[in-house]
């Protein structure tokens, strides 16, 4: 298991670990029939999730196609990498309705498409990507099970003392990105109720790996001697492999109306404490900017643990892995999460 690894030496080992399926994911895919289409596969989480779907299906003894759909830039090696992992690829602009109509049929869809960074100044594209496209996809795959990636941003900031937002709490999105993500959910829900399409809504708060995520953001600031902002002083995060496994397993409990599931780790992490842990491990001083507010974007994911089991990779383990990775100069995606953003401007 990934949690037993003392160090992650390179990208090959990392991606092997990020695509390791949980027993729950294997059981879920063993019980499902039909192929899996991953829409928006070229994002940070999509490639290893698609690879995990292949590996889980093989372990389950189920023969199926796993098909990743994206625009795929001509210079990207991702298509060949996915092919080597057993994932078929289809090039498609998902905002082209004709391209959607031409996609392969599938009994199971993982919807990962959407826009976050760059949404400020391109609100029109943000809403098209996050709220219009779901209607086209839901109509095309009305007979499928659909696992829809959403975000904890739809809850808005909540008092830390509350212990995190739960699935039945009122929604209060801040900024057009979060509002358009709520639009995504509402449009998918309309088609779920109209057509009986079974769906799961996955409100994810910060999947972490060694090249991206809220923990890496903090480690990089400490390593560079930059101040760590504290206004958003608390966060949740989950090892990306576990978020991917839960997402695939959620196909097995998709429902109409949609089954809403928070995905994140159980710990309420203090940004100050996380930064101090990185400073101690890296042998660096740490500087802070601002002070902690009483609210943050944090969620309670107990429902997901009842369904899929509790995460096995702890924040301490992630901090250890990331410290080692940063110290050795491991590659990063250079895409900050901007988790400290409080007005929803991405």
How do you describe this structure in short?
By secondary structure, the chain is of the alpha/beta class.
Describe the structure.
The protein is globular, with a radius of gyration of 19 Å. The two termini are 35 Å apart. Strands 3-2-1-4-5-7-12 form a seven-stranded parallel beta sheet, sandwiched between helices. The protein has a two-stranded antiparallel ribbon with strand order 6-15. The longest helix is centred in the middle third of the chain and has 21 residues, at 175-195. It has a single domain, classed as 3-Layer(aba) Sandwich (Rossmann fold). It is an alpha/beta fold and 346 residues long. It has twelve helices and 15 strands. Strand 1, helix 3 (46-60) and strand 2 form a beta-alpha-beta unit.
CATH class division: Alpha Beta
* Strand order, sheet with most strands: 3-2-1-4-5-7-12
Low-confidence stretches: none
CATH architecture: 3-Layer(aba) Sandwich
How many separate domains?
1
Write the CATH homologous superfamily: NAD(P)-binding Rossmann-like Domain
Can you tag this structure with a few keywords?
alpha/beta; Rossmann fold; seven-stranded parallel sheet; 15 strands; globular
Topology:
Blueprint: H1 11-18, H2 23-31, E1 36-39, H3 46-60, E2 66-70, H4 78-84, E3 88-91, H5 97-101, E4 108-111, H6 123-140, E5 145-151, E6 158-159, H7 175-195, E7 198-204, E8 207-208, H8 214-224, E9 228-229, E10 234-235, E11 238-239, H9 240-249, E12 259-263, E13 269-270, H10 271-282, E14 288-289, E15 295-296, H11 302-308, H12 315-327
Parallel strand pairs: 1-2, 1-4, 2-3, 4-5, 5-7, 7-12, 8-11, 9-14
Antiparallel strand pairs: 6-15, 10-13
